[in-house]
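User: quick one, sequence for these tokens?
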């Protein structure tokens, strides 16, 4: 099974992806985590990515598309995967379509987590206080939400037209939300 968890920063995609994979054994592919690991390891990729991430901007499409293609080709992904934080632009979505086609794979569901804007801001500011992620500061949060509206929201329409979109309210307890995901995905 191939899934995408879609939603604004702070919508809870990562948390739900972890719960989902514990239940199903699928692999979670989080571009945010891959990039943060590269930053922590001080690799060339990490140095390049950090500038964009700290400002709340997207890392260039060519960079993340390359990372995803490599990751999806790794053997553990054969059991199915959840993409969390990718795609984030139409160009990334089109690249994903061609990567999947090359590998003879299809998307099963795109789960769209819906959370009101005020709640997103509250969560991101809370996470900033708790985890100290360097991109969870007010300027970067504002920018990430702007980028989401401009670049990522069009994906809702993109996947709706393909008949893949499943809506889930991202408000409530993590257990409640996990139940909603289970209901739309069917496992
Ligand atoms: P959030 O959803 O809270 O912004 P992520 O961990 O998904 O957190 O992403 C953190 C940052 O990593 C983004 O602001 C962006 O700079 C970079 N990033 C993650 N995924 C992508 C992607 N698919 N394309 C471009 N940049 C990305």
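Assistant:
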């Amino acid at each position: 099974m191939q899934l995408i968890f879609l939603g604004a920063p702070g919508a809870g995609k990562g948390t739900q992806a972890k719960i989902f994979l514990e239940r199903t054994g699928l692999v979670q592919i989080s571009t945010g985590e891959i990039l943060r690991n590269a930053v922590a390891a001080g690799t060339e990729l990490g140095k390049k990515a950090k500038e964009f991430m700290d400002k709340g901007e997207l890392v260039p499409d060519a960079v993340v598309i390359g990372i995803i293609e490599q990751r999806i080709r790794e053997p553990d992904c054969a059991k199915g995967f959840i993409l969390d934080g990718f795609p984030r632009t139409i160009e990334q979505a089109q690249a994903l379509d061609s990567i999947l086609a090359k590998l003879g794979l299809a998307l099963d569901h795109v789960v769209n987590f819906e959370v009101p804007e005020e709640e997103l801001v509250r969560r991101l500011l809370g996470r900033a206080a708790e985890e100290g992620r360097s991109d969870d500061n007010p300027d970067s949060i504002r920018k990430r939400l702007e980028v989401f509206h401009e670049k990522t929201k069009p994906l809702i329409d993109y996947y709706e037209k393909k008949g893949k979109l499943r809506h889930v309210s991202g408000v409530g307890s993590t257990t409640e939300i996990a139940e909603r995901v289970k209901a739309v995905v069917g496992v």
